[in-house]
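Worked example

This section walks through a single chain of length 90. The input is the sequence exactly as stored; nothing has been trimmed or padded.
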Amino acid sequence: MKIYIAGKITGNPNYKEQFAAAEKRLTEKGHAVINPVKNLGFSYKDYIDMGLCELMKCDAIYMLNGWDKSPGAILEMHYALTAEIKIIFE
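Given that input, the structure is written out below as tokens.
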């Protein structure tokens, strides 16, 4: 299954470690993983646009703890609900 990781990045000093750990867990279970943290050097709007484009190609979204405190992750959750993409919670 192709899974997109969603969670709080802005204001989260441990986001890189949190996303990397989730990617490792999911990869070890045999999933193809999209980790948006690996994209660097873009504006906030670019990150939102790229994330939604990547999510559109996935079978599921993996919501990290704290996702509900992130406007971007909330948007990704709404997209997943609307597009009927499977939602997995950490």
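What to look for: Helices lie at 15-28, 44-56, 71-83.
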